[in-house]
């Protein structure tokens, strides 16, 4: 197996430390360490060159050449996936696409713990004449032309096999080792179609697959007005464009949606890579932001409901660079719900039937919902979203949209204690947290009585 090969191959270069290095009783000498580091560096360089050429074949749309980088012992489904990917990459039209090894976790001096392939697989590879194998920390940097200002990075660990001096791809680690999620690469799913749509002064992109074409058509039609609705609330300090992916299988949604959202409990999810500083002093940029719709959205989001969800998710896109991890969900989700539902109802019963019934039966909530209440699989999620929406709807109606945006910016800057939230409320709205809740409760009683 690779860990044994790595240590003993290095020790074989220095016979003096061979017994000590592989015997388990002595400390590895600097000479053995240097040999091991040289081995790691050589392996990383060879694999990097292979991955660079593999990415080049995909960019060129050369299915035969791309498939030549697949190990002969690979599963036939993976070999077909790679052949199909070449065509899908051409449809995507990326301005940048590069496969490589994550330099932060591979090579000498990093302390990377080797992941071993299963014993039965290693025995098979040995029987096939493999001289080495590696569960490599592969990453893919790509940018979609017209929408991505900078490349996003996707982790795509691969199991690689060496025969003589050539490395080949056995498959993704997620499938070969049966662990982890499939990489979020849109071209890894057959039948990819890119549709461009003008949203304001920029281009947006809708990606679809054979089973999601109808949903994609509806998204494309709703896109311009959804962007306008978000801009009307948030202002122009966002890209005013996005990439939306309409998936056609649960497995596809799990891969492209990040694996953190159950497709049975949500219609869509917004994912991103990371937030970085913009170029030349421009605003911060959220890399790799994608709105991903579940396959059942085509039937579960009839009529205007699709627009509500699209506006909700695009609000997350617009506010991403001003939203820290741990920001209170009643603010972030409530704001997205407010923008999504704005103008679609006339009564509380229409907008939030569960909340209206709860207020009539038990009175209004004593406070905004906690973060825990938003767990999609939990019993209180639907009510929590309605409560959060109602709080933001009340604030926007009572204090105006501009101050509602200011409240979002203040409270979404990071995790806040109750005292810090009260301070943000006082600074932006001019009332105490207790007075805000009291006003919201009175408003709810009035709305529920209509």
UniProtKB/TrEMBL annotation:
Residues covered by the Peptidase MA-like domain: 311-445
Parts forming coiled coils: none
Keyword Iron among record annotations: no
Domain of life: Bacteria
UniProtKB keywords: Signal
Signal peptide: 1-20
InterPro entries: Peptidase_MA-like_dom
Claim: rRNA-binding is one of the keywords in the record: no
Pfam families: Peptidase_MA_2 (PF13485)
Protein name as catalogued: Peptidase MA-like domain-containing protein
Species per Swiss-Prot/TrEMBL record: Gordonia jinhuaensis
